[in-house]
Amino acid sequence: MSGTTDLRSEHAGVARMLGIMDAMASRVGDGARFDGTELDEVIEFLRVFVDQCHHTKEEQLLFPALSAANVTSVAETVAILRADHERGRATAARIAALTDRLAEDDAAASAGLVEAMTDYTAHLRDHIRREEGDCFDVADRELPAPVQDELNVGYAQVERDVVGEGRHEAFHEMLDRLSRAYVA
Q1: What is the Cα–Cα distance from 172 to 52, expressed in whole angstroms?
Q2: For position 32, what pLDDT does the model report?
Q3: What pTM does this model have?
Q4: pLDDT (0 to 100) of residue 145
Q5: Angstrom distances, CA of residue 17 to CA of 63, 71, 121, 146, 148
Q6: C-alpha angle with apex 117: 106 to 8, nearest 5 degrees?
Q7: C-alpha angle with apex 18: 3 to 81, nearest 5 degrees?
Q8: What pLDDT does 30 receive?
Q9: Measured between alpha carbons, how far is residue 57 from residues 40, 115, 148 in Å?
């Protein structure tokens, strides 16, 4: 298995969440209220699945492997991707803060939350396109097979040690449920 198969699969899950977030924001734009419990689930997904799991795999495993293999053609792209990760973290924190304000019946929080969610989804879609086209394809071509095998072992360890057994599957069950509620 290539050293990016797992990451590409996770991108598919992230893309599903982005569709859910867009649908949630659209409904609120049409006058509906945000569901606090579902927003908390979205925030947990962004923090744990996207950042602690997916971005950790990239920042601690894939990007250093590219550097160690002297794949200099992606050095600038990796710097941009790292900056993208920071922007995503900041926007996810803004979504969490606005969700807290929404729970306190702050009238302005709803509009701010729609804006933050829309910003996040647009940003992550661009990021995923850049990452898959400008980084993952190069990694698949340039990294030797043993390095790619080591990456896959490392990815499994991140899921086990950082995220926790069964969490990945639980997130996919949540994506299924929220997709039925918002995207179906």
Answers
A1: 16
A2: 82
A3: 0.94
A4: 96
A5: 24, 32, 9, 33, 27
A6: 150
A7: 45
A8: 80
A9: 24, 29, 13
Q: Would you state the pLDDT for residue 139?
A: 96
Domains of the chain plus CATH, in order, are 5-182 (1.20.120.520)
Q: Write out the two tokens for 20.
A: 């859910």
Write down the pLDDT at residue 175.
Answer: 97
The secondary structure of the chain as a DSSP string is --TTHHHHHHHHHHHHHHHHHHHHHHHHHTTPPP-HHHHHHHHHIIIIIIIIIIIHHIIIIIHHHHHHTT-GGGHHHHHHHHHHHHHHHHHHHHHHHHHHHHHTT-HHHHHHHHHHHHHHHHHHHHHHHHHIIIIIHHHHHHS-HHHHHHHHHHHHHHIIIII-TTHHHHHHHHHHHHHHHHT-
- Chunked mean pLDDT (size 10), the chain, 184 residues: 94 98 90 88 97 97 96 95 98 96 84 95 97 96 96 95 90 96 88
For residues 176, 86, 160, 175, the Cα torsion angle rounded to the nearest 10 degrees is: 0
**Residue 166, φ and ψ in degrees, nearest 5:** 80, -10
pLDDT of res. 154: 97
